[in-house]
Design a protein that fits this description.
The protein has 126 residues and is mostly helical. It is 52% helix and 3% strand. The protein contains five helices and two strands. A two-stranded antiparallel ribbon has the order 1-2. Helix 4 crosses helix 5. It starts with a helix and ends with a helix.
């Protein structure tokens, strides 16, 4: 009975882990480049090419000379990071939630991800 219980527990733990694992790195990059290349180019620049949805980038400055502010987080490097909660409670770990928030943000602020990329290319932030 104990061996069966241990095996069942391991099976369930593996199944749950597999259900909540998301593509990252090269796999995620390829998916996003196929669906939204402008958004992908911003993420490449914002994450230094890591495509790590849990990445923090040190202190962020609004403009050169400004005092440091809260750190940026995730694929979109949202600041403050908590604003991504509007896209879902799993914003800290789910790259798709972060992408949904980023799409919404770039559309609301710039009209499209490509317009946001054009702004990024001019200013090195978006």
């Amino acid at each position: 009975v104990t061996t069966t219980l241990v095996l069942l527990t391991l099976f369930l733990a593996t199944t749950v882990a597999a259900a909540t694992s998301y593509p990252t790195g090269k796999r995620l990059r390829a998916l996003v480049y196929r669906s939204d290349p402008c958004l992908a180019q911003i993420i490449d620049r914002e994450t230094g090419g890591t495509w790590n949805p849990r990445i923090y980038n040190g202190f962020t400055y609004w403009h050169p000379g400004d005092p440091p502010r809260a750190r940026s987080y995730g694929l979109p490097q949202a600041q403050p990071p908590e604003k991504m909660a509007s896209a879902g409670a799993d914003w800290r770990t789910n790259p798709f939630t972060q992408l949904a928030w980023m799409r919404s943000y770039t559309t609301a602020r710039y009209g499209s991800a490509c317009a946001a990329l054009a702004f990024w290319l001019r200013h090195r932030w978006y």
